[in-house]
Design a protein that fits this description.
The chain is mainly β. The chain contains six helices and 33 strands. The chain binds copper (II) ion. It comes from Coemansia spiralis.
């Protein structure tokens, strides 16, 4: 039993013991056969792929010295970390920084106050899809649950070809849209999901299991038949403990749950990770794909075989039923409501792109963080960021509600940088041609908060967050094909306060100038509203 005094003592002890963890990362190409189906060029760190997970403890400082050995620029994003006052280290290339050119070094440093389960990935040229991704765990300074040991399970989709090669078809106007789907394999902890390491359970012990979906296009359903999962953490947010049978996770999503091992070692069990992506109508033969691993109580014990008879018997984790442990009520009143629709439309150049507003998102000539920092009061005007950054300027401490509709025929996972949002409501979208599958569902208790949320085919979602972190934060679909095609917007949050409290490191300024990237002015690097020189947006 942990008392309040114990907790305070533990916290104080931890602050005294806070460490600085410094990692040297050489990001480079390697030839690998990750799934048994073929060798291809991929991106690893220090010659390693899978890239080992990084563990720190709440309160520690993490410094990552990146050396770019690729022949193209790169950046890293620590997915889910707030980066309050350090927006320049958030990572998306040409948003909060210019990328690290080939052969150069840059250090990302952050001291997160958060705890929980995250991941780190390349955030330039979609290099995450080519292997540049790893789990990142911040252990609790004060334990949020009582458990004996923990396991980490990472889930990934893996393609036989590099992202850039796969995109040729997507970007070829002669190939009808949607292009023929390619077939990824599922990887569990970095290896072919059918070849997975064993999870060892000791009778009676309690295990915390963290699951991270690091995929680029695929969802995973994760179940442990014969064991119930008690969810305790959703993307760094401690949840009111809740029992479920399974997790259904979109790209970028994470959970922690507690499993109590059975009292005897009579049986061994399996866990299932089912890779799928929800297309309507379903594309036959594409998915799902089933992967299985062993939960071993005793070597050679018989396998427990009773499983749920169908998907419908499984109680899946549901955002709308989960509650935040901190009891924070629904934010309100709403200061600003932002209505978005994810649509795909064809542009004059023949390419079909996904958009959230009227135009597909596209990088500007000057990263919007630099525009926000250098334009004085004009930084409050969305116009100075150019049309393609799809900028919404938010006032400090406003309560923002995003209502996002998905009339497309595929589910999308949306990720907000620099924040978590409350999951407020799901419902059938009136913009969808499909008959409604579910009624409107609203959070009943203090809403769970997370940084990545799935909007299903034919539905809408409502989320709320407080604009309490001045910075420049992307909101984008985490399926890289969609992100590449422009399914993103940019929040420029409290730019005047940002100007007062943020100093960009000189090393970053110099790195930009060395590449001829301007570090001041509007999106085109000019004064005022003059956007001469900014590449034109594609015309619908
Ligand atoms: Cu998408």
């Amino acid at each position: 039993m942990i008392t309040y005094t114990h907790a305070i003592l533990f916290l104080l002890l931890n602050i005294c013991l806070a460490a600085r963890i410094e990692l040297d990362w050489d990001v480079g190409y390697m030839m690998v056969n990750r799934d048994g189906f073929g060798t291809r060029r991929a991106i690893g760190i220090n010659g390693k792929l899978p890239i080992p997970a990084v563990y720190i403890t709440q309160g520690d400082t993490l410094a990552i010295n990146v050396h770019n050995s690729l022949d193209v620029p790169t950046t890293i994003h620590i997915h889910g970390i707030f980066q309050n006052k350090t927006a320049y280290n958030d990572g998306p290339g040409m948003v909060t920084q210019c990328p690290i050119p080939s052969g150069a070094n840059y250090t990302y440093e952050v001291t997160p106050e958060q705890q929980g389960t995250y991941w780190i990935h390349g955030h330039y040229l979609h290099q995450n899809t080519d292997g540049f991704r790893l789990p990142f765990v911040i252990k609790d300074a004060t334990p949020i649950a009582d458990y004996d040991e923990e396991y980490l399970i990472s889930l990934e989709d893996w393609y036989l070809t590099e992202f850039a090669d796969r995109m040729h078809e997507v970007l070829d106007p002669k190939v009808p849209f949607p292009p023929p789907p390619s077939f990824p394999t599922g990887l569990i902890n970095g290896y072919n999901g059918n070849d997975t390491q064993v999870i060892k359970f000791t009778p009676g012990k309690r295990y915390r299991i963290r699951v991270v979906n690091m995929s680029t296009t695929e969802w995973f359903k994760f179940v442990m038949p014969g064991h119930r999962m008690q969810i305790i953490e959703v993307e760094g947010i401690r949840s009111v403990p809740q029992y479920v049978d399974g997790l259904d996770m979109g790209p970028g999503q994470r959970y922690s749950f507690i499993v109590t091992a059975h009292k005897t070692d009579q049986y061994n069990y399996i866990y299932n990770a089912t890779l799928y992506a929800n297309f309507v109508p379903a594309i036959m033969g594409l998915n799902p794909r089933f992967y299985t691993g062993l939960i071993e109580y005793r070597s050679g014990a018989p396998l427990y075989t009773q499983t749920a008879s169908s998907d419908h018997d499984i109680e899946w984790a549901d955002d709308i039923k989960l509650s935040s442990f901190d009891n924070e009520p629904l934010l309100g009143p709403v200061s600003r409501k932002i209505l978005l629709t994810v649509t795909s439309r064809q542009y004059a150049d023949g390419i079909t792109r996904g958009v959230l507003g009227t135009l597909p998102y596209n990088a500007t000539g000057v990263p919007p963080l630099f525009t926000a920092l250098t334009m004085g009061r004009l930084a409050m005007s969305p116009l100075v960021y150019g049309p393609q950054a799809q900028v919404y300027v938010l006032d400090h401490m406003d309560v923002i509600e995003i209502e996002l509709h998905n009339p497309t025929l595929i589910d999308h996972p949306f990720h907000l940088h620099g924040h978590v949002f409350q999951v407020v409501e799901y419902g059938p979208s009136e913009l969808s041609q499909l008959p409604p599958k579910f009624p409107v569902r609203r959070a009943v208790g203090p809403p769970i908060k997370r940084d990545t949320l799935v909007v299903r085919v034919g539905e809408y979602i409502k989320v709320r967050f407080r604009a309490d972190s001045p910075g420049v934060w992307l909101f984008h679909c985490h399926m890289d094909v969609h992100f590449m095609l422009g399914t993103a917007i940019t929040f420029v949050e409290a730019p005047l306060l940002l100007q007062k409290q943020t100093t960009v490191p000189e090393s970053l300024i110099q790195m930009c100038l060395s590449q001829g990237i301007k570090v001041s002015g509007n999106a085109a690097g000019n004064e005022g509203y003059d956007l001469t020189g900014l590449p034109l947006a594609p015309v619908p």
